[in-house]
Write a structure and sequence with these properties.
This is TetR family transcriptional regulator. This protein is mostly helical. The protein is built from 10 helices and no strands.
Length: 207
């Protein structure tokens, strides 16, 4: 191993590659300061390597940032831990868990993604990178469909609409904190889940 690489990886795990080190460094900088002021030189200095080292592993800065975003999003999904399976506990309790996980995920991911809206090429490359982490939205949709198959929610329930409500709440709660002069409306998670499960039409119309 070269002295430069050894310096860059000092204190890191033995099996950490230089590419992984660069991605981790860029991921941390994205989370801490956003993408607007990130430069190749800044990433290289934070990683403890010469500027040109980045180009040994990535064709350009956008490719490195896309890999860093992918790592950040995957880490946020892993942090959610296992989510309830259909048939476990109660539907109400499980949907609370999914909503809580969705809010945590969006709080971790949206600020980073929002900081890259001015560089759509990075986001395009990010979506093209493989991942072994199932998306929270897909897990939520599968959960609702599974409960419908088990008969724990109505057989004609529009699970896609129910999922859209929960996803929309997560977007609203986080995006409002990113826009100047806006703040999220207070949301009672219990009230949200109750509304999703019971609907808002008069009971005589639902009967």
């Amino acid at each position: 191993m070269s002295p430069r690489k050894a310096a860059a990886l000092r204190g890191a795990a033995d099996d950490r590659t230089l590419r992984d080190h660069l991605v981790t460094t860029a991921q941390r900088l994205l989370a801490d300061q956003g993408a607007a002021t990130l430069t190749v030189r800044g990433i290289a200095r934070a990683a403890g390597v010469a500027d040109g080292v980045l180009y040994n592993h990535f064709p350009d800065k956008d490719a490195l940032l896309a890999a860093a975003v992918r790592a950040h999003v995957d880490a946020a999904h892993r942090a959610l831990g296992p989510l309830p399976a259909p048939g476990a506990a109660t539907v109400e309790r499980n949907l609370r868990a999914y909503l809580s996980a969705g809010l945590a995920l969006h709080r971790a991911v949206l600020p980073v993604v929002a900081g890259l809206l001015a560089t759509p090429a990075v986001l395009t490359r990010f979506t093209e990178l493989p991942t072994d982490q199932p998306d929270w939205r897909i897990l939520l949709a599968r959960y609702l469909n599974g409960e419908r198959e088990l008969g724990r929610i109505a057989p004609d329930a529009d699970t896609a609409a129910a999922a859209a409500v929960l996803v929309g709440i997560c977007h609203d709660q986080v995006l409002a904190t990113l826009l100047p002069g806006m703040s999220p409306h207070p949301v009672d998670a219990d009230a949200v889940i109750t509304t999703v499960l019971t609907g808002i039409a008069p009971r005589t119309e639902r009967a």
